Amino acid sequence: MSAISTVAPAAAGAARAAGPAERAACAVGAALVTSGLFHLGVFFVDGGPWDGPVSWRKPFTFGVSFGLTLIAVAWVTSYVRIPARTRAVLLALFTADCVLEVAGITVQAWRGVPSHFNMETPANTAVAMSLAAGGALLVAVLGTFAVAAFRAEPAGPAGMPLALRAGFALLIVGLLSGAAMIARGVADTRTGHQQAAYHSTGMLKPLHGVTLHAVLVLPALAWAVSRTGWPAARQRQAVLIGVWLYAAAAAGALGWGALTA
């Protein structure tokens, strides 16, 4: 939660100076986080398993995760050198996609059925395929932002260019691991091994979860060290250490997933 408290002042300031797409993204992101926290409360009241394809954990974690990522992307892309209209369109697509993903998972949780790899009825198939299509759109939108961040050096404090580029690189790793899980799960489901789909994708879940939030944590670190008054070289060194530590955490998550799958 320290990254959230660190980035909050910067995000709030950016939102006040932002256009409609940025303000909408922050508002929707806050609503998604609220939805996630609400479902954590539902879990404590209703009980049930925490793990597994059907649990209140999914609307909780997905709501909070997508909400924080949406707010983070709305903030950090203000440093990316990309045309304002293009950024507004991409943010609008990303905002709509985040709502689609969280809504699909939440609806299925209330129905008491799995959200992913569930092809048992036409309705369940429609939700599962919409989540997969939404994942493809996430890769396309965030990949575009990542390319822009590497094509031209981002603006911002001394450590921000490194933080943004590393954050987006790790985020793409997270998205690709998610795409790999979807591809493997869909393949298992189509061959009649739906239960196997939930187990075969487990190895990548820790890596997926850790890398998705690098685009929040690393720019938050860069912003925080910029407030210290340190020389630019020291700020960049601090961010570089943070990048290596985050990369080590991602590698550890992959190892943990391999051991526990």
Please tell me about this protein's structure.
By secondary structure, the chain is mainly alpha-helical. The chain has one domain (2-260). It is 80% helix and 0% strand. It starts with a helix and ends with a helix. The mean pLDDT is 85.
Secondary structure layout:
Blueprint lengths: L1 H15 L3 H27 L10 H20 L7 H28 L10 H30 L8 H31 L3 H7 L4 H8 L1 H13 L5 H29 L1
Strand tally is 0
- Taking all Cα atoms into account, the compactness measure Rg is 19 Å
Structural class: mainly alpha
For the largest beta-sheet, the strand count, sense and barrel status come to:
none
Mean of pLDDT: 85
Poorly predicted runs are none
Number of helical elements = 10
Question: Terminal Cα separation, in Å?
Answer: 27 Å
- Total domains: 1
Gross geometry: globular
| Share of β-strand residues | under 5%
Helix percentage: over 70%
Q: What is the chain-wise order of helices and strands?
A: HHHHHHHHHH
